[in-house]
Structures are given as structure tokens and as C-alpha cells.
Design a protein that fits this description.
Blueprint (H helix, E strand, L loop, with lengths): L3 H17 L7 E3 H6 L2 E2 L2 E2 L8 E2 L9 E4 L15 E4 L8 H11 L4 E8 L2 E14 L4 E6 L18 H27 L15 E5 L14 E5 H8 L3 E3 L5 E3 L1 H4 L5 H7 L19 H14 L1
Parallel strand pairs: 5-7
Antiparallel strand pairs: 1-8, 2-3, 4-5, 6-9, 7-8, 8-9, 10-11, 12-13
């Protein structure tokens, strides 16, 4: 069992993270905040370091486990409802691996840090180590079902069963994919809408050109940074984008008479060119735009 001081620090960390959610509503935290900003009894407690499995000096067991952005596309490490987390090195008895094993045995909650861009991590907490796969030098990580809204649809009295935990973990994995894609796309466009140049990040989405399932993995060239109104217009074929990056507004919408939002926000975008990322390799794939624009014309 975790000693009392370590447990108090752990619970204080979770409370502290919850208090920061209004500032980081998508649960994407800068590394520097995790490394520098948490204090317990006026003593700084570092929550993230160089190692993937991190144990602050004040705590008995690890507090965070860290994964790279690329890991969500690696079937060896992730499935649709289970997350494999590699040992540190090849020695099951390395003290770091032993620490995670003790977390499993004592049902100690952890924070899962998933890199979505340089210096930024999507945090999921609490998560639990539920299995130790020594043969494959890895642990199995699952989300806490009670932390997800779906738990309200299950049994709110008893502890979550395996089906419920896997369902919650599947939701967590979907968040990992979505957040990684969002950060890639918004960073490429320097946090502005590619149609109207709006720069309020909280009002921006990473719009898909075609479904990710057709590609096998998320790609920045399959995304366009759009404000929420232009994202909805794009998804509903009110706006189309040609392979030459020209914006087309549907003809019936062009002829419609309504308020200033329609006139200035939609109609006057017709014929403009998309505001593109500086990096050519991050610009929308022309072949995928051709597919999407064909669908736009057919919808008209």
C-alpha cells in the first residue's frame, strides 16, 4: 500500500489538475506547467521529467507515464480498447518497472501523458496498470470508467467491470487520436482559420478532408484549420474547396439574403484562396481535395 504522504501528494495532484481544466479545457498541458508549477506543502513536486515513467523524489511510486505521438499508430502498443506500455529497458526488475508493478498490485492511480506536439501533452487521469506482460516487456493500461460520462450508463454503485473499463479506455484512445490530429493541424496553420483568419484557438477545429479510416492514420495533409462556423459549412457542403485551394460557396447560398454573418462570413469568402501553411508538406493533399470537392458538387 502507498504510504500516506505519497498518497496525499497523488490526490493533491489530481485535484490540482482538475482545477486547471478551465484554463486547459481540452486537457492538453504544456510540459513546463507539469514540471514547474505543482507544489505540496510549499515544496515543488516535479510531475514530468526525461524518463517515460516518472516518480517524483517525494513519492513512493510513479505518478506519470508518458507516450510519444507516433505510438497511437503502432499496433504493438495500442488496440481499440487496450494500451500497452513498454517497460523501461529489457529488465523486468529495473526499479522503475518494479514501481509500476507495485502500482498494479496496489491499484495506485496514475496520469497518462500522451505527446500531441512538442512540449504539449494530453493528460488522462486516473489510469491504472491492470496487467503485467513480462514476456513482451510491457504493462497493460486501462482508463478509469468512472472518469468518463459513459459510466453513468453503467452501474454507478459497483466497481467498473472489465467491459466498462475497456469501453472507457476506447474513449480515451479516441481522444488521443483526435487531440494528436488537432494539434498537428492547428500548429501547421499557426492557430488561425484557413478561410477567415480567425485566431482564437478555442474557436478552431481540425477539419478532415476525407475520413481517417480511408488512410489508416491521421495526416496533417488531410486536415484544414477552420473556425467552427466554417467547419460546419464545409462539412455540410455549404462551402467547397477546390484542389487549387479556391473557396466556393454553394450557388443557392450565394443568392440567399440574410444577416451580416451570411454576407460577410460566408458569401464574401467565395472565390478567395485558402490561407495555407508555410510548410508545403503540411498543405492539404490535392487528390483528397479533389475527392471532397467532387462530393461537394454532387451534393449541390
Amino acid at each position: 500500500m502507498e504510504d500516506l504522504k505519497s498518497l496525499k501528494i497523488r490526490m493533491s495532484v489530481f485535484d490540482w489538475l482538475n482545477s486547471l481544466l478551465p484554463q486547459y479545457p481540452d486537457s492538453v498541458f504544456p510540459t513546463k506547467v507539469l514540471a514547474n508549477d505543482f507544489y505540496f506543502n510549499n515544496e515543488q513536486v516535479v510531475l514530468s521529467g526525461q524518463q517515460g515513467i516518472w516518480k517524483p523524489k517525494q513519492m513512493q511510486y510513479p505518478i506519470t507515464i508518458k507516450s510519444r505521438a507516433e505510438s497511437i499508430y503502432d499496433d504493438e502498443f495500442i488496440s481499440d480498447s487496450r494500451i500497452k506500455y513498454r517497460y523501461k529497458g529489457n529488465n523486468p526488475n529495473d526499479w522503475v518497472n518494479v514501481g509500476l508493478r507495485e502500482c498494479m498490485r496496489n491499484k495506485v492511480p496514475l496520469i497518462y501523458m500522451h505527446e500531441v506536439s512538442k512540449g504539449k501533452y494530453l493528460l488522462n487521469w486516473p489510469v491504472f496498470i491492470v496487467e503485467d506482460d513480462i514476456q513482451n516487456l510491457s504493462f497493460i493500461v486501462e482508463a478509469d470508467a468512472k472518469s468518463y460520462p459513459i459510466y453513468n450508463d453503467f452501474d454507478a454503485v459497483n466497481e467498473p467491470n472489465e467491459v466498462e473499463r475497456r469501453y472507457a479506455t476506447r474513449q480515451m484512445i479516441q481522444r488521443l487520436h483526435q487531440s494528436t490530429f488537432r494539434e498537428m493541424v492547428l500548429n501547421a496553420y499557426r492557430d488561425h482559420c484557413a478561410i477567415c483568419a480567425l485566431k482564437h484557438r478555442e474557436l478552431l477545429d481540425a477539419a478532415h478532408i476525407i475520413e481517417d479510416s480511408s488512410l489508416g492514420r491521421a495526416a496533417v495533409t488531410n486536415g484544414i484549420s477552420l473556425c467552427k462556423i466554417h467547419h460546419a459549412a464545409f462539412d455540410n457542403n455549404i462551402i467547397g474547396i477546390t484542389p487549387d485551394y479556391l473557396i466556393h460557396v454553394r450557388e443557392d447560398i450565394l443568392n440567399e439574403i440574410d444577416g451580416p454573418m451570411l454576407k460577410f462570413g460566408i458569401q464574401q469568402m467565395h472565390g478567395n484562396k485558402l490561407i495555407l501553411p508555410k510548410s508545403v508538406t503540411s498543405r492539404p493533399n490535392r487528390d483528397w481535395l479533389h475527392i471532397r470537392y467532387t462530393n461537394f458538387k454532387n451534393a449541390v
